[in-house]
Amino acid sequence: MTxxxxxxxxxxxxxxxxMTMMVGIDGVEDGHARPMTAQLDGDEDGGPIWxxxxxxxxxxxxxxxxxxxxxxxTSKGHDLFASVHGKLAIEQDRAMVDRxxxxxxxxxxxxxxxxxxxxxxxxxxETAEIWADASSLVAGIxxxxxADPKEDYKDKVAKVALR
Length: 163
Hints:
Blueprint: H1 4-18, E1 20-25, E2 34-37, E3 39-40, E4 49-54, H2 58-62, E5 68-74, E6 80-91, H3 94-100, H4 103-106, E7 118-132, H5 137-144, H6 149-153, E8 157-161
Antiparallel strand pairs: 1-2, 1-5, 3-4, 4-7, 5-6, 6-7, 7-8
């Protein structure tokens, strides 16, 4: 049986590995989301989710209008999905830029850490709904024999507080 805590741990582990989220601001541009590469501060079990971006990114430009964010995640194997809600803000802490900086981020900024367009966003994730994929071959075979697939799925969804 999968618990909410199990699904939350799986989410953080998958995000640390797969890293891509679709991020939008609630109530701004109809929640238009953009693909962003998530950075974690070395902790797979929670904490803020960080994104390096440019000052001309639509999220940065829309932040003065609102800071409630919606971020969605799909693991590369499509076996885990999440919808994350929280507060999105521009982070001014240079020490955090130094800590999270890596060669993948550097490739996007000609001026390095001092690039005038560089912006670090901080998503303080508050809640999430996390789904483990239950549409497996096993579930299909069970359904052929009259088993209710909803019964197998009931412990594969979690609504969790991430703070």
